[in-house]
Amino acid sequence: MWRAREKTAAVSSSAAGPVSTGHVAASAPRRASNPRVTPTKIGKPSTKSKPTTQAIAEIERNREDRRKAMAQVKKEREQESLNNERNGTPGDVDFQRMIKQFREQDHQELSHTSKGEMKITICVRKRPVNKREIRNKDYDCITCWHPKVIIHDCKLKVDGITKYLDSNAFAFDHSFDENTSNTTVYKYTAQPLIQFVFNEGGRATVFAYGQTGSGKTFTMEGIQAQAAKDLFVELDKWQQHGTSLELWMSFFEIYGGQCQDLLRQKRLTIREDGNGEVQIVDLDEVKIHSEAELLQTMQRGNALRTTHATEMNDQSSRSHSICQLHIREAGSMKLHGALLCLLSSNAALGKLSLIDLAGSERGADTKSHNRQRRMESSEINKSLLALKECFRALDSGGRGAHIPFRASKLTQVLKDSFVNAKARTVMIAAVSPCASSADHTINTLRYADRVKEKSVPDDGLLDPMLVKVKHLAAAQSPGSSPEKPPPPPPLGSNSLADLMSEAVSRNLTDLPHDDDDDDGLDDLSTYSDGEHIDYDDVRRDSSASQEDIKALHSALRNQAPDGDVDDEDHSLEELHEVVQTLYEEQENLLRCHMTAIQESAELLTEEGILLSNVQGETVVDYDIDHYAQRLDEILAKKEATIRRLRRQLAQFRRRCQEEEAAAQRVDQVPFY
Ligand SMILES: Nc1ncnc2c1ncn2[C@@H]1O[C@H](COP(=O)(O)OP(=O)(O)OP(=O)(O)O)[C@@H](O)[C@H]1O
Questions:
Q1: Is the CB of 127 inside a 6 Å radius of any atom of ligand 1?
Q2: Any residues with CB less than 8 A from the CB of 76 and at least 6 apart, and which?
Q3: So what's the ipTM on this one?
Q4: Where does this protein have compositionally biased stretches of type Polar residues (predicted)?
Q5: Which CATH code for domain 183-420?
Q6: If pLDDT is split at 50, 70 and 90, which confidence band does 168 have?
């Protein structure tokens, strides 16, 4: 594995290699070669020195030259600006010129090769500049030279007028520019995983990560469409070789710490059983029969995601969506259930998870949010942090290290994708191309960079050219040559078939099942992976644990150079804890309110009967003492219910104030 990065250093004119882009104003007019004139000495004019009138004339000439040069530069800039506008690239002419010069320098781009065999693959995809950005005269400041991504920060020198480029280079497994099609992105990211899922029964996960509006959904929907085709091509191949497999799909989202089935529009509960297995209670799984049906079901799920407008995207997906595609042995559910128990604690023979993460927002963009949106933002950032920490823990070996799965619902439900021995992950970091998003883009790239820190060869400052050389060397290393498409699975000699025959050959009668059940299903509830869970065994509701949130922040503090922990870290940790508690209090309040309504309804019914027993038209004989005593009891119950609800409400409102105070203490800019 190879990767390199430049952490903070600017690529100044001297570091940038052949083309100097740095600390020189692109537009600054050249001064005349000798702008200064030595003052003429007072006294007897020297025969050698110029007469004062001549010197003045020369100053005047120089000034005139400078004026002309300035006018010429101004004219050229105006012309360039007009041309840029015409070409759909408005924005700062000088910066764009410097970026253009940078891109024109002699460089070598590598060709993409498949990294399908890697446990974690990190890619970056840049989207094109959009119409809104063009209207705002924003401009493209990202250069993708696979596998590098270079971000040009356009800065002014202390003089306030001299412009220069500060370029940061990162290197990943793949970098895709704005002209790269979904087909190409798919080819080097998800496509190799399809083989892994079928041939090795693997757990493959593809994440799209990035700033809101950066192209995650665009990328993930492209991958869904291509994967739908390839999954059915594979199923057909296996069928032709005598192995009948089925495709099952579940699709859910995590929004604000809640889990929602996107196919059935139903709230789901996440639980952890006695074995530490995370279960999504009642998640619907549908059998898919064709590519068209798969596409349609994916589109249905995508359309139902929770969206809100953000600064960057009018239709921003504010939830993490998780589309799980399970490969199962064809046949009855009973055999399927039995196989699941035999094969592993996880039911599917192979599983592909396509995850479109909620977009991260800058602190500045969340300032005007109301509480719900603030909590939503905090929850998104916390879960993305937790995700990164889980990756890091795993990438650095995982053994012995605490993996903070429980710090968020997202990492809880993905536990299987991380810990399974046959797990592979692709992370696609989507980035906006524009200068106005440069700070966020740097954060996205750092996030992606740190996900796989172990394999970063150098922590120091790297010249982009040096990065390129390192990558060239890596690309030429054994095993990284361009891959040919793998052959179809050999009949009878593949691990999936082996797994299945092994399962079937074992004694199925030993497995738990319900003899009375004609359809072969156990009476216990069936969950996402078709696995069964005994409610008595459920030991923990899966609310994110405060300990794991603490562990998460402690891990982050450890990453700070020289244990450098600032108040910001503590405030952030505090905010995440308060938001977590607030979500729990909110749940408690809603539950308490619902109970109160139910109790009130029951008491109301009883009151009606009580009253009709003493004042009904046909009532002759009644027991007014019993009526009074019961009414007293009912009113006491009502008072108790109201007191309980009020207490809960007061607690919730206290938490709201705490959240407000915590949010004010945190400048929510980069959470990673
Ligand atoms: N590579 C691309 N080529 C062309 N258009 C793109 C590309 N990537 C994104 N877009 C367009 O940019 C807009 C925003 O993209 P998208 O909705 O995928 O962003 P997102 O990262 O999912 O945002 P959010 O996190 O807010 O949901 C969409 O109109 C999309 O069509």
A1: yes
A2: none
A3: 0.98
A4: 46-55
A5: 3.40.850.10
A6: confident
